[in-house]
Amino acid sequence: MENSGRVVDIHLCVGHRKTMKRVEEVRALEGLGLEGDFHARGGRRQVLLIEEETLQALHLSPGDVRENIATQGISLMKQTAGQKIQIGDQVLLEITGPCDPCHRMEEIQEGLEKELKGQRGVLARVIRRGIIRVGDTITVSEERVRSKFQNPRVRRYSPSDIFDSPKPVSR
Question: Which CATH superfamily is domain 4-163 in?
Fold first, then answer.
């Protein structure tokens, strides 16, 4: 597989535990996700992409593992947080990390949670809006962004911050 491919299927989650809805195109909303998708609320799981080759190897159909976009020809699982992916002429996504399979995969097929380890796809957020269509090309950009999901900043405290600080007096 390569650093480019194409969109072969698009699905929307219309509600919690509801059947995925197949669409030919969808509007990607910057900072939110896909219009009409239950997960379009911001955060790191705005879009879930999976390789069609993975679905075929596991005898699954597009939409079965609750992905939004099935791709063909692109190595998604080799991408890391902060990597940019261009879809079509308009949309730009930032990979936020791999999607770990959950226990719900067992409802689809016994043993699927274990089989999908390391290959359920990648989560991404929309950093440039536009329309995504079945058949659109997907290209991995050489440019990376420092993802806020990569290494969250942790405030480091010294012992003096904790023990030498004046304590507020309550009356």
Answer: PK beta-barrel domain-like (2.40.33.20)
